[in-house]
Design brief:
The protein is an alpha+beta fold and about 140 residues long. It has helices at about 85-105, 115-125, and strands at about 10, 15, 40-45, 50-65, 70-75, 80-85, 125-130.
Length: about 140
């Protein structure tokens, strides 16, 4: 993910931009601090170095700040990532999401609690495609 530096005028707790921003892709993000309580990021997939999970529909993760730490959470599944900047936070969120998916989907239902089975069902319903990126790099 690329980070953007934008010049603007700081006024009344917000940065005023001289012109509208034209995004080149869905992954570009611009944040203006302080964060509004309803700040969200949308994901139609999550990716790490080895895996890509593609979703049936876009999910909306909530971004919160606590001091110098950012938290990005998807409360519907209880998945949260954190970091010191947006890049680190989104990367950690994606890592945690993939690790959660891999852990629960690899377990037989007989060893999972009822709550864990419900989480597994939600994860498998959301994810439409699992891509092993290490196998596709040959």
């Amino acid at each position: 993910m690329q980070q953007l530096a934008i010049r603007g005028i700081y006024q009344n707790g917000m940065v005023l931009l001289p012109q509208p921003i034209r995004y080149k892709s869905k992954t570009e993000v611009v944040l203006v601090f302080p964060l509004r309580p309803d700040t969200t990021l949308h994901f139609d997939r999550v990716v790490n170095e080895a895996t890509e999970l593609r979703f049936k529909h876009s999910i909306e993760a909530k971004l919160l700040a606590d001091g110098d730490i950012l938290f990005l959470g998807y409360p519907e599944l209880g998945i949260t990532g954190y970091g010191q900047d947006l890049r680190e936070t989104t990367q950690n969120f994606q890592e945690v999401f993939i690790a959660t998916f891999e852990h629960y989907t690899r377990q037989p239902d007989t060893v999972l609690t009822d709550k864990a089975q419900q989480l597994k069902a939600k994860l498998t319903d959301l994810v439409t495609q699992y891509v092993n990126l290490l196998e596709t790099e040959l």
